[in-house]
Amino acid sequence: MIDRVHALVLLRQMMLIRRFEEKAAELYTLGKIRGFLHLYIGEEAVAVGAMQALTPEDGIVATYREHGQALARGIPAGVLMAEMFGKASGCSRGRGGSMHFFDVSRRFYGGHAIVGGGLPVAVGLALADKLQARARITACFFGDGAVAEGEFHESLNLAALWKLPVLFLCENNLYAMGTALARHQAQPDIRRKADGYGMAAAVADGMDVLAVEDAAREAAAHVRRGDGPFLLELQTYRFRAHSTADPELYRGKEEVAMWRRRDPIVLFTSRLQAMGLLAEADVASLQRAVDGEVDEAVRLADAGPWESVEDLTRHVYAEMP
Amino acid sequence: MTKMTYRDAIRSALREALRTDPRVFLMGEDVGGYGGAFKVSYGLLEEFGPDRVRDTPLSENTFLGAGIGAALGGMRPIVEIMTVNFSLLALDQIVNNAATLRHMSGGQLSVPLVVRMTTGGGRQLAAQHSHSLEGWFAHIPGIKVVVPAVAADARGLVLAALRDPDPVFVFEHATLYPVEGEVDEQAGPADLGRALVRRPGDAVSLITYGGTLGTVLHAADELARDGVEAEVIDLRTLRPLDTETILASVAKTHRAVIVDEGWRTCSFAAEVSARIMEGGFYSLDAPVARVCSAEVPMPYAKHMEDAALPQAPAIVAAVREMLVAHG
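Above: the input entities. Below: the structure tokens describing the complete assembly.
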């Protein structure tokens, strides 16, 4: 049985991410957003589903494709858009851009653009919690590409060895940039990597938001119980190119079309409609709401101030009183 | 004042930190059960237990990154890396995270992390355990680099590093561990970022740090026998660099020889030389000279290693040559 109110929250968050990303792509072509832009379109169910298992006290470490996680965590869209515009009103004062969102008040620790580089940091955040006997966990998002990095293996080993409260969330979208999983992994079954570290693991359909939520809740419960870290693989697909610089020579249109038929928003909408939990009018009203929220985000970002160039060298070191 | 070795002076700082600050913990390869590869942490596991003195797997990048994460989470981790050559395995976390997180987050994050490691040659350990790469680290904004040369600084600069809100890297020259010096165990942190005049003089400024301070003082004694009084500057901190003390000395002596165990090309000595050109050019009576390691991977054989490292005769020769050509 699906709770209607909760279902609408999930759907709205996924729709907000989708709209935010479409708008970001549009603003990129207009030159409002520069640098790299890695869109999350197609993967919304992963961030939204997984975030349901976390409390506001839990820590989050994400990758350079983190707009979805940041929005699902509740960082206001306008602050994120302002960051991509390079404004001082952005969540990282315009110093990070699309790949480096930070919000310490929400325990959102980036925004890491070195593949695998966030995992050791997540392990350390969890170590700090364990040493200070705090009942919270750290969720660490990373992609299938990170599985080839030494930091992935070292981090799983250390977290398991020290029984640290880390929830490892592998967003397997089948491609490490342009290299398919089977072309970079001798053992492409990512869940099985956990076996080597004696770590519990599971896999879930990353296009089904409820499946992600259920799996994440179970995995998080395991971690909260003190049973050690958990590796949850979420199988998903990005509908857009890797980044704005990617001509997509490595995958066929048929494959993309096949995955698009499993669009997480369409799947969830149809399911709710079939169950009589969602009317056409509800969808239209949600769409209007998220369109309005994204438009307002763009307005706020546009109105935000630029940081003064005199401040260039601030925040390299702590400012002494 | 107590006479103690450089090794014991560091342990004294670690013990004091572990005793007085519950956020402090030590982690690294063999820091616990083994007592530290160089016996710096010997006895600390027994005194403070395995939660606070943590042996790690051989995963430099990850335990250094875990130190960063633990610092973000409110702890004051001290990470020991066995030698500077092994720290290269952790460069991702050092350069991409420790050094960037405060700035990249617009000032939200603070990484109060202390990383200690041995550096330098002189022990016949060949080309994968003997290099002096602290100059590389000093290139990176966002971290601080200290290079204690005497026992009192070993204690004082480790304490200063622990008090600092930013990542501080402590480079301990491995030949210094058994060297004794006077240490005041009641003294607080040393002044991070300040160089010291170790020997006053007026004929030439000999500027050095870390493992070569002893060699330089020896060379200065040799020069004094000829009536040449060299001023010896111990940099103590490479980043932030105390340019003021360097320039004040050069303004007095009008000559500078920089002694650095790193390779000459792109060495820290090159940076010091550039600062003298920028800020003290008109007080110079001679071009700045450098005595650095030979540009070879460190050889094993003793006579070859000795030939590769900066030695007192080469320093004396550099000064004499300078005085003859530009006296």
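Note for the figure: The first helix of chain B runs from residue 6 to 20.
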